[in-house]
Amino acid sequence: MPQPMNVPDAAVGSVLRGPSANPGADVPVVPRERLAAARVLVVGDVMLDRYWFGDVNRISPEAPVPVVHVQRQEDRLGGAANVARNAAALGAQAGLLCVVGGDEPGERIVELLQDSGVAQHLERDPELPTTIKLRVLSRQQQLLRVDFEKTPAHEVLLAGLARFDALLAEHDVILMSDYAKGGLTHVTRMIEKARAAGKPVLVDPKGDDWERYRGATLITPNRAELREVVGQWKSEEDLFARVSALRASLEIDSLLLTRSEEGMTLFTADGEALHTPALAREVYDVSGAGDTVIATLAVMLGARLSLVDAVALANRAAGIVVGKLGTATVDYDELFSGVR
To answer: What ranges does the record give for the region Disordered, renumbered to this chain (predicted)?
Structure first.
């Protein structure tokens, strides 16, 4: 059963419900129609995750590297596109505002978004090569990753900001997915506009400049991302103090720290630290797990669940998606299987 964090007594609230003998018993069941009414707008950096699968039977005579005989190729949505895909997989109305190039990878992203049921609000930059992450795998093990990327032009980003204004009223929750590729250059203004309109704003951060996320409702760093901003903490008490100071200085309501095998800790606007352990599942691939977490949070908040219940379901979704290869999704049946 979950245990309270070792933080000052005044800071400890109720503990998030976590795994028990029946891991599904502690999370709420949300009707499909309630999720279908949730409207989530994802804004951020998109990319095409391209996978080449093959066999390795020899070492190259040119250099001490394996030779991969590619036998199968697969394309998947990455970055903010994978976040939107995760929201749609749960049955929500997911929209995506982003910039793509006018090239083949950009067209492939359009096709995959159509297949995923994501409403597309794309700005096209003919001079921009669409971001690609190419992964080479053999026997389900990644051997190499090759990245192709470039920052979008200023003009197309301003066009995206104007479109954001038009889309704001049509969505319940705004989700900023930052992969430091330049698509969220105007994130501070977007957050200000969304909060002025009464919309909750969730941010998946990147880098050490979190001033640009000022005023967000919830931010979801992992351990490495948080350390980059607040430094290395020495204890749970020290962590609580550093996060509290950070939230206050940036006027961020809540912070959800994803801690991999240690689960998640939610630092709330009420000054509480609520912890839930990771679900005990086999970990196959953690890539894209953060996308699943924040997408699930956004959908559940859009369905009017409490933040505590949303985090419990996001933790459950993370436990499922890490058992899949590459960027993947969790659908409604998987999330609520075994839940009473």
So the answer is: 1-27
